[in-house]
Amino acid sequence: MRILIATAGSRGDVAPYTGLGAALRDAGHEVVLAATESFAPLAEEAGLEFRPLPAAPRAHGDVQGKSALLRAAAAFVTGLGDGFADAVDAGTDLLLLSATTAPLGWHVTEATGIPSMGVYLQPTAPTGDFAPTVMGARSLGRFGNRAAGRFALRMTDRVYEPAVARLRERLQLPPLTATRMRRRQDRAGWPVLHGFSTALVPRPSDWRAHLAVTGCWWPYFDASRRLPAELENFLAAGPPPVLVGFGSMAAGHGERLSEIAVQALRGAGLRGVLQSGSAGLVADGDDILTIGDVPHGPLFPWLAAVVHHAGAGTTAAAARAGIPSVTVPIAADQPFWAARLAAIGAAPAPIPFRSLTADRLTHALITAVREPAHAKAATATARHMSTEDAAGSVVTAVRRLAK
User: SS3 of 224, please?
Assistant: First the structure.
C-alpha cells in the first residue's frame, strides 16, 4: 500500500511522524511524508519519500497574544490549502492526516475517493473529562468542558474556512463549509488514532469508538548514531546535568533566558546543558554546555531533569525517559501538558513564561531533582509508556483498513 502522511506546523508537529512512517515502511508499505519544505531532512534521515506542502512553518516562536496567534494560524492555513491537493498523487492508496491537515484532507478524499484516517498528536474531540488543550488546564465541569470543546472546534473551522472554500473550488466540488464537513466526518465515525500516552491523558470516558489512543509516536532515530563527542564527554565528566531548552518557542528572549538558566542551575548546585533552539540560549563554563539540535531519545535518559516549554513532544520524551520536568509553558497547548505532568507528580507546579525568574526556577529545580516523589512518579510513567505499542497499533489499523 502507498501511504501519504500529511502534517504541518513546527518540528514537534512533524518529527513524530518520521518514526511512524518508518514503522509503516518496515511493515511493507511505501510511505511518503508530506510537510513543509524545511522538514525534508527529517524524512530523508528516516528513509521516507518526501513531498513539500506549500506553506511556511507557523511562526509561533515569539511570545504572542491570542489574536496574533489566530492571525498567524489563518495565514498559515491559507497558504497550506493553496496547493494541498498537489501533494496527493494518483498512486496514493491511503491518506494519514494530522490535526492540522485533516480539515483540508477530507475534501481531497471526497474528490478522489482515496480513503483517509486521522493520526492526531493531541486530543481535539470535545469531552467532559477536561477542557480543550488550547484553553489551558482549568476544568469547567463536564458540561462546560464539552461546550468549550465545541467552541474550540468552531474557532478552528473559522481559521480553515477560506482555505476550504478555495480548495473545494479547485477540486470542482460543490460549496461546503468547514463546520459541515467536520460534522459529516464525525457522524460517519471517521477513524482517528491519537499519538499520546494514556499515562499522561487517559482516554476520555465519553469518546465514541472511532476515537482511539495508541500511545506516543516517536521521532525516527538511527540507533547507530552517537551523541556529539563534546556532549558525551560532558555527560561523563560529572553528575547527571539538567537540560534547559524551549524548542521552537521564545525567539528573541535568548539573553534573558540564558541568564536565568545559569543563575538557577548554579543556585541549585546543578550542572546544565542549554539547548539553543529558536530562543538562542547560550552560556559557557566548566559546569554548563551549550548544544544545538540533538535528539531527545538518546539524551534524556542521561539527565537529572529537563526544563522545557511543555510542548507535547518534549513532555512525552521527558516522561518516556523517566526523569522529572520543570515546565515553563508559553502558549497554545503547553499549559495543558504542563498541568498533566504536575498532576501525575512528574513535575512541580508549572512556572508561566511571563512569571519566570531565576529564584522561581532555582526553587523548582531543587524541588524536581531533590524530592524523590517526582523521580518516582516519572519512573512509573515511563514504565506505563513502555507497554504501549503505539506505532504497532497504527500498522494494525492500516492492515485492517486494507482488507
Answer: coil
- Count CA within 13 A, CB hemisphere, residue 383: 7
The residues facing 268 across adjacent strands are none
Integer Cα distance of 391 and 215 in angstroms: 8
Choose which CATH entry (3.40.630.30, 3.40.190.10, 3.40.50.2300, 3.40.50.2000) describes domain 229-385.
Answer: 3.40.50.2000
At residue 103, the pLDDT reads 95
Q: Is 40 exposed, middle or buried (0-12, 13-18, 19+ CB in 10 A)?
A: middle
Contact 130, 145 (CB under 8 A): yes
CATH code for residues 2-216+389-402? 3.40.50.2000
Helix (H/G/I), strand (E/B), else coil: 135 = helix
Does this model's pTM top 0.70? My answer is: yes
**Cα–Cα nearest to 16, from 98, 84, 81, 80:** 98
Query: How large is the C-alpha radius of gyration of the chain?
Result: 21
DSSP secondary structure letter of residue 217: P
Residue 53 has what DSSP assignment?
E
Q: Write phi, then psi, for 309 (nearest 5 degrees).
A: -85, 0
Q: Does 253 score more than 90 pLDDT?
A: no
The answer to whether residues 97 and 120 touch, using CB atoms and an 8 Å cutoff, is no
CA angle, residues 60, 34, 21, in degrees to nearest 5: 105
Single-letter code of the amino acid located at 257: L
Q: Residue 25 and residue 1: Cα distance in Å, rounded?
A: 10
Predicted confidence (pLDDT) at residue 70 exceeds the cutoff of 90: no
C-alpha grid cell, residue 78: 491559507
Q: End-to-end CA distance of the chain: give it in Å, rounded.
A: 11
Q: Which of 114, 52, 112 is closest to 83 using CA atoms?
A: 52
Cα–Cα distance, 192 to 123 (Å, whole number): 10
Using an 8 Å Cβ cutoff, are 210 and 355 in contact?
no
